[in-house]
Design brief:
390 residues; 10% strand
């Protein structure tokens, strides 16, 4: 099922650093890259460092005045006053902010270009997935919206149908906003319910506008949703939508913050369920998009125990060499973890819940089950707009 794959990586992306104590610790990126290497996955794909996104590329999504504001606080962080969302507790200004944010965006744009042109079937940028940034402002730890920029570049190259699938615990609001009226882009987001989590958007009734009506789909899951419900919800919504939309490329965002150990959210998903959905996205790309798949990282704040393992699974799947959930983690990596963080690293690539069992939607649903209620709300709101039965 797999073909050629690229891993987008430049060590300088670890400079995306909001400072001590901020949840978005760049150690999660460097530890992931080390774990990918520890399993020998970098021998199974091409490691590529793409150039930073230039200003013309950034303007495909972001307003010029916002880009200028990012450049200004990048040069002088003390000048940040909260305008444009810069210099806030979520998005503190730091020196070089523009340069490293453009570099991360460039990796996602480069991934999209490689997949579209046929240089690779799959491409992964686990430093990307910064899905909250808006055209005119920073939000939720995100400065430039690399996911939106990758999609916009695909459209610029001639793509007519791009599907974006976001399984981060937070709503993919920035990507939805960027393509709210664009019928060429289907955005599907599975996330914790906006009643209980930032950014308080992503209700089932948010379905797009104008020519894009019906191209935004949101599954708002109740706090506490675990593996069986999460995977069930994914399969109850995503495959049918993709089959009808017939995307030429799938861009997926794999925030690891759905995990039960994540400190910033309230779902109860395991590493094993995350791996199951990563595998499903890979299979859906082959089923509906001729294998063209761009996979991004995203949130994830259990930076030692969860993020490196989750995204190493993602890289392995893309490379055609999936890591066995029961695999023991190389001791050298665990020593690296302790040296960097003074924390003990996990020992296996599983939470002990593989394989993940779930009930297929087609077998029937329980009207008293809160996850099934969420799925049904989404299907009723969005499916008829796509010509599908709810």
């Amino acid at each position: 099922m797999s073909g050629r794959a690229q891993l987008m990586w430049d060590e300088a992306v670890t400079g995306y650093d909001f400072g001590r104590g901020h949840p978005m610790d760049p150690v999660r990126l460097s530890l992931t890259r080390k774990l990918v290497g520890a399993f020998g996955l970098d021998r199974e794909l091409e490691v590529v460092a793409a150039k930073p996104a230039g200003e013309s590329t950034l303007r495909l999504v972001h307003r010029e005045d916002y880009i200028d504001a990012v450049k200004a606080v990048s040069a002088d962080p003390d000048a940040a006053d909260g305008s444009y969302g810069l210099g806030t507790p979520d998005d503190p200004a730091f020196a070089g902010m523009h340069e490293v944010s453009a570099l991360i965006a460039g990796q996602s744009v480069g991934a999209a270009e490689a997949v579209w042109r046929g240089d690779a079937d799959h491409a992964v940028n686990f430093a990307g997935g910064l899905h909250h940034a808006m055209p005119g402002g920073a939000s939720g730890f995100c400065i430039y919206n690399d996911a939106s920029l990758a999609i916009a570049r695909l459209l610029e190259l001639g793509a007519e149908r791009v599907a974006y699938v976001d399984v981060d615990v937070h709503h993919g609001d920035g990507v939805q906003a960027a393509f709210w009226e664009d019928p060429r882009v289907l955005t599907v987001s599975l996330h914790e319910h906006p009643r209980t989590l930032f950014p308080q958007t992503g209700w089932p009734e948010e379905t797009g506008a104008g020519e894009g009506e019906g191209t935004a789909v949101n599954v708002a899951l109740p706090a506490g949703t675990g593996d069986a419900g999460w995977v069930r919800a994914f399969h109850a919504v995503v495959p049918e939508l993709l089959a009808a939309f017939r995307p030429q490329v799938i861009v997926s965002q794999h925030g690891a913050d759905t995990h039960f150990e994540d400190p910033l959210a309230h779902l109860a998903v395991s590493l094993d369920a995350q791996r199951a959905v990563q595998t499903a996205c890979h299979e859906l790309a082959h089923a509906h998009a001729d294998g063209k798949w761009v996979a991004l990282g995203g949130g994830g704040y259990a930076v030692v125990d969860v993020v490196p393992r989750s995204w190493t699974h993602l890289v392995g799947i893309a490379a055609g060499k999936p890591v066995d959930p029961e695999a023991m983690i190389p001791e050298g990596w665990r020593q690296e973890v302790f040296a960097r963080t003074r924390q003990p690293g996990p020992r296996r690539m599983t939470d002990g819940l593989w394989p993940v069992a779930y009930g297929e939607w087609e077998a029937g649903y329980d009207p008293a089950d809160r996850v099934d209620q969420a799925v049904l709300a989404t299907r009723r709101a969005a499916f008829p707009l796509r010509g599908l039965l709810p």
